[in-house]
Amino acid sequence: MKxxxxxxAAFKLLYSLQLMEDVNIDEQIAIFIENNDIQDSEAIKYIKxxxxxxxxxxxxxxxxISQNIKEDWDIKRISKIDLTLLKLGIFxxxxxxxxxxxxxxxxxxxxxxxxxxxxxSFINGVLASVVKKNEIAE
Length: 138
Known about the structure:
Elements: H1 3-19, H2 25-35, H3 41-56, H4 58-67, H5 80-95, H6 100-114, H7 119-133
């Protein structure tokens, strides 16, 4: 499984977890991996890292998102899909230290597939702002 496919799988699981309350994360990861017949150990490790990391850093991720959207906007106005994609992208850029150009490109591609018409430009703008404010180098 390629990283792009693993990222999409991680997004799907992360999104479904955003809709659930009071669940056992490890159990949900195991069920997702089994139901999607994911056998690539690197992909499994990547997915677990994304889910565990975004769960652990959720408060900080939401703070970063809030700091990088327009002042008159509230994070509660952001669609669950866009919010999930932003958390995924910011986690990978800041915490996983992956190349931001790759992450932004792939998260924007996911937004085209799963978001609405305005998702790609909104996500691209927020992630670009995060990179600029945090002075992240290539």
